[in-house]
Specification:
793 residues; alpha/beta; four-stranded mixed β-sheet; elongated
Length: 793
């Protein structure tokens, strides 16, 4: 007599010596029924793959079958209950008996109640199998069912079965952990790998995080907090492994109640994956779940099985698991080597080693050409490096494999793609949806960052503060709040957040463009010596790209002070460093800044030579439409209208019509061309179409020049006043901002506003009071002030 009885007529259920056995997912039900009807010979792997995983590759399908076998073994309580055969899988003899028998010859009547209403999502092949089986199966008469001819006896039996079933369900369903509430944090410890196989370290940790992130109930404890907690625990090595025992200490210190540990061990050819869930308050005992993988390739399936049980213990219903769960090997990769490369690439990206990240992610897709998440990572990498065509190609490749993405990862991918394509509204809708559906420090930070890019600074600050409510030590949230408040002209508040970020991470203010933003806030409040010290330290960093950024910032500061020759030298060094680091965009940008400094010195021939060198770099795909607009500005300042037209043609060929920033860039450059061709009204209309462009100072300068050419001096003056209200330090149009004081003074003087003209000239003279040379603009401003002073006498 079999130990377990499988009911297939109506709702499928499995009963054993202790009661009902939970079958929480459709694929497990489908797998069990196929094995039960196949008898001792078992079901062939080919048939199982066709019916259960029709859309998966053969390799991924086999991993899913091994996961289902491991999960069924855990439910039946014996490792030998599901056995491998030469063709596929079978149930061990005497393990399970079904309430139907399979006929050799189909019947016209069939058994309509067989698995009535059951649907296996995404598999019409399984539906076809069900239709065929209903014509072949017939009910089995049992003593209990014969006894049930007596209505009273049947009723009593039904009540007894219900009571026993309820007791069994209570005893056998994974116990829900008391005290866990929706949204509580779980601290995931590092994997304890006892196999000696390094590919089972970071790869399994990443895979576990992806599985748990599908949950709507729990959120992962942010690893960004570890540095602060390690410091409190006097652990000086930030790379100290977070063992299960150490994780419990961290959780206790940071008021996190639950810790999840993972262990993988090996016995011969078999691998054992164990999950342990601890309540650090000691209010309840640790719980443990183990699944066995028959081979190394099946480890991910076993990991998936134990984490599914843990999610049930944390209170997720079967319906929630059904809606928020895709098999782990499907949504990551069947290749442990590819998973390891992806994980190490993500770690490299997070610490700013972008070159290594790109190499590792490329290796991941070489190892598994279907690895959707790795394609998405490469898309982000190429967009970050201003290679739009490759970025879009890899994003498209990832989305073509959307069935291999969790809902969380799919939404993240769509949001990032929309952001890079300039579809700002769509990007914000998606990032807001992700934050609401999967609330965490990272999702709210991403949403806040998107709002910041859209210049919605109040909303951005609110979102970023929500991120900090999950992790008050999240450095990047503090940095972006600083950026937002700086944009609101609240530099004092910005400096508080910059200081907090620096306190949490001593290198936070010396990474990428953050150093320049922080220094800009210091300049604005008049702390120039501190700003110079910050920029100088950046220029001495080990990374050549960091040194290029520090040198550029020092060049801005020198020009701000009127030390033009010094700024030329610094921008030149920055250009050389960018060239050495292989950044055409950085080199071209620094050459345009050199050209602006040469213009400030009145050396227009030298300025023209730097523009020529920048033009020679225009073929690089990293010079996107926004930069081409900057290049056209430099050409227009030197009266090179033909070059501006050439740039406009290149911009049209390179732009994406649906990208708002691209369209604004094209409108702006067309405005420069219109102005050069003596069509100021058209230039003004183009400037207004370019209103959303990030280059606020050049757009306002175009507007002022168009008004002036039309004879509208009052409007030109208003545009210049708006221009001078913009932050002037550390932007590519810094010299245009400085020159704007002289232009405004000239307009005011022509209108007879001598007091206003005097103020404008004096601002420029005061700004460049330490200039060691007689700069053309400075000479004019001093001359005008001297004349106005004589007139007053």
């Amino acid at each position: 007599m079999s130990r377990f009885r499988l009911r297939t007529r109506g709702a499928v259920s499995l009963a054993g010596p202790s009661g009902t056995i939970p079958l929480e997912e459709p694929h497990l039900v489908a797998f069990l029924v196929m094995l039960a009807l196949a008898g001792d010979e078992g079901a062939s792997e080919e048939d199982l793959l066709l019916r259960l995983t029709p859309e998966a590759t053969a390799e991924h399908g086999r991993i899913e079958l091994s996961r289902l076998a491991a999960l069924l073994r855990s439910r039946l309580g014996e490792e030998a209950s599901v056995v491998g055969t030469s063709l596929g899988y079978a149930l061990a003899q005497g393990t399970v008996s079904a309430d139907v028998l399979v006929r050799q010859v189909p019947s016209e009547e069939g058994c309509a109640s067989f698995m009535a209403g059951f649907v296996l999502p995404g598999s019409p092949e399984y539906t076809e199998w069900l239709v065929e089986q209903r014509r072949r199966v017939e009910p089995v008469a049992t003593m209990l069912w014969q006894w049930g001819q007596s209505r009273r006896a049947a009723a009593l039996a039904a009540v007894a079965l219900l009571v026993l079933g309820a007791i069994a369900a209570y005893l056998l369903t994974p116990r829900r952990i008391a005290g866990f509430s929706v949204g509580d944090a779980i601290l995931l410890a590092d994997v304890r790998n006892e196999t000696g196989d390094p590919e089972l370290d970071a790869g399994l940790s990443t895979a576990a995080a992806i599985t748990l992130q599908q949950s709507g109930r729990l959120r992962l404890y942010p690893r960004s907090r570890l540095a602060a907690i390690y410091a409190l625990m006097q652990i000086t090595d930030g790379d100290t492994a977070l063992t299960f025992e150490l994780a419990k200490e961290v959780a206790e210190r940071d008021n996190v109640r639950f810790v999840l540990g993972l262990q993988v061990a090996r016995t011969g050819d078999r691998f054992h994956v164990t999950a342990r869930l601890a309540d650090v308050t000691g209010a309840q005992k640790e719980v443990e779940e183990t699944a066995t993988a028959a081979s190394r390739k099946e480890v991910l399936g076993a990991l998936d099985a134990v984490l599914l049980v843990m999610r049930r213990r944390l209170g997720e219903s079967r319906a929630e698991l059904h809606d928020r769960r895709l098999p782990l090997p499907q949504v990551t990769t069947a290749s442990l080597a590819a998973l390891r490369s992806y994980s190490e690439g993500s770690a490299a990206w997070n610490r700013g080693d972008y070159a290594l990240a790109g190499e590792l992610w490329m290796r991941a897709v070489d190892l598994d050409t279907g690895f959707a998440m790795a394609y998405g990572a490469l898309g982000r990498w190429h967009y970050h490096h201003h290679s739009r065509a490759d970025g879009e190609r890899y994003y498209s490749a990832a989305l073509a494999r959307a069935h291999r993405l969790t809902e969380h990862e799919r939404l993240r991918l769509l949001e990032a793609q929309a952001s890079y394509l300039g579809l700002r509204d769509s990007s914000l809708v998606l990032s807001g949806m992700i934050a609401a559906r999967y609330p965490s420090v990272s999702t709210w930070y991403n949403h806040g960052t998107g709002l910041l890019r859209a210049q919605r600074r109040d909303d951005a600050i609110a979102a970023l503060k929500t991120a900090l409510s999950f992790d008050s030590t999240h450095v990047n949230s503090h940095l972006n709040i600083a950026t937002a408040t700086k944009g609101q002209r609240r530099e004092g508040d910005a400096l508080v957040h910059y200081a907090e970020a620096g306190r949490l991470d001593s290198l936070a203010l010396y990474r990428n463009n953050i150093n320049h933003e922080w220094g800009s806030a210091l300049v604005t409040v008049g702390r120039l010596a501190e700003a110079e010290s910050a920029f100088r330290r950046m220029s001495e960093r080990p990374s050549i790209s960091d040194r290029a950024l520090g040198l550029r910032s020092l060049g801005y500061l020198a020009l701000w002070r009127g030390r033009v020759e010094e700024s030329i030298a610094l921008f030149g060094q920055a250009s050389d460093a960018s060239k050495q680091s292989g950044s055409p965009l950085g080199e071209a940008r620094n050459r345009l800044l050199m050209a602006a400094s040469y213009r400030a010195a009145g050396r227009e021939l030298d300025a023209g030579r730097e523009i020529d060198r920048a033009m020679n770099l225009m073929a690089s795909p990293s010079l996107e439409p926004l930069f081409l607009a900057m290049l056209a500005t430099s050409c227009a300042r030197l009266g090179r209208a033909d070059d501006a037209r050439t740039i406009l043609s290149a911009l049209h060929a390179r732009m994406s019509p649906e990208n708002g920033m691209d369209s604004a860039s094209a409108a702006y450059v067309s405005g420069l061309v219109h102005l050069a061709e003596q069509r100021p009204a058209d230039a003004l209309a183009a400037a207004r179409r370019a209103a959303q462009l990030q280059l606020r100072i050049p757009v306002l300068m175009l507007e002022a020049e168009a008004f002036a050419a039309m004879g509208h001096a009052d409007s030109a003056r208003v545009s210049l006043e708006r221009l001078l209200h913009e932050p002037g330090f550390g932007v590519d149009a810094e010299f245009d901002w400085l020159h704007g004081h002289l232009l405004l003074g000239e307009l005011q003087l022509a209108e007879g506003d001598t007091a206003g003209a005097r103020r404008s000239y004096k601002r420029l003279v005061d700004q460049w009071r330490d200039s060691p040379t007689e700069l053309p603009d400075l000479v004019v401003a001093r001359s005008r002030l001297a004349s106005l002073a004589q007139e007053r006498r």
